[in-house]
Design goal:
The protein has 351 residues and is α/β, with parallel strands linked by helices. It has helices at 10-17, 29-40, 62-75, 89-101, 115-121, 159-164, 166-176, 178-191, 202-219, 234-243, 250-267, 273-285, 298-307, 340-349; strands at residues 22-28, 48-53, 81-87, 108-112, 126-131, 134-141, 146-147, 317-318, 321-323, 326-327, 336-337. Helix 7 (166-176) packs across helix 9 (202-219) and helix 11 crosses helix 14. The structure holds nicotinamide-adenine-dinucleotide (NAD).
Amino acid sequence: MVQRGLLSTLSQHVSDCAPAYRYAVIADATVFAHHGDVLQRGFPSDRTLFLTVPPGEREKTREQWARLTDALLEWGAGRDTTVVAVGGGVVCDLAGFVAATFMRGVPVVQVPTTLLAMVDASVGGKTGVDTAAGKNLVGAFHNPAAVIVDPDVLLTLPLPTFRSGLAEMIKHGVLASESYFEALNLALPELAGETGALAQALPQLIADSIGIKANVVIDDEREGGVRQTLNFGHTIAHAIEQQAGYGMLHGDAVAIGLVVESEIAVQLGIANATVGQRVREAVLRAGLPVKVPSGINLSRVLSATYGDKKARSGVARYALPQRIGAMTPGDGAWSVGVSDEVAGAALKRHS
Ligand code: NAD
């Protein structure tokens, strides 16, 4: 459900989609500070618990999961509870994981409040937390009962955070639809501007992006095949984020990953050079970075690609584009083993 103004009637939509006796609203603290009054409207005060999570990736931990779960237990929540996750990707993943594990699983309604979370993190049922060994290494698949998207909530989002979400939208165009990629490209200058969140094209572009992700996920709920394509840009992105100590925006790391991994596809002869150029141009139009931040050691980034879940049999694996709108099926696993030499050279060209 994507519609401007939906937040003001959130409780009604939640009780329609996932009716429960109790509601546990788990919200990002910054989002709650901006939108708490509207959010609380309509929820039964005696049967609703509002919990906040401090902002930032560093809070996507087992410790926060335990704190939230303990708070639900202390409150007396049971299987009669629907969890409502309100925030960016961090809260979508964290609160989703709380819902996935609480009493062996209670319904979750995702209410994403960053662009990245709207088009990506809230769709597809992946939930989890980070550990010192890497991102998202502990988690569960738990599909939301509904995803409720109010683009107006993006008006309070800092511009760099808003823009970082454009990376996943570019990714969706590359992996599934040239026409979507083109429509997005047309809108990118306005979307990357000061008032991008007000762009008229935004709600439809969000809905189409969700549609692309949902289609991929429906075909492969447990990531055995085509869902690997959603990892385009992410082998490199996760490695950069780990080396940056999770101190950068996920979408910014994805933007760099899209550019570097397109370059790898070109170098391997999987895609022609125009694919690399078009991806790079789109990332630049979105006002996103195309180079690995200075101070990050490239050979450590390369080593970190092995820690990623996509590495199998000692070779780092990448989901790579064939052209704009289609990914390479590889050997049927929708990913390709790439040598350090090729990946290292592509990284070097973008540092
Ligand atoms: P985030 O959740 O950390 O949010 C970014 C910042 O924006 C935070 O400081 C937050 O407080 C603030 N914020 C959020 N909404 C706001 C609003 N409306 N107004 C003002 N401030 C607001 O980061 P993110 O970029 O949304 O998400 C990144 C996370 O998503 C990563 O952990 C990543 O692994 C995860 N992710 C998960 C999936 C999945 O399929 N589960 C997919 C992609 C990304």
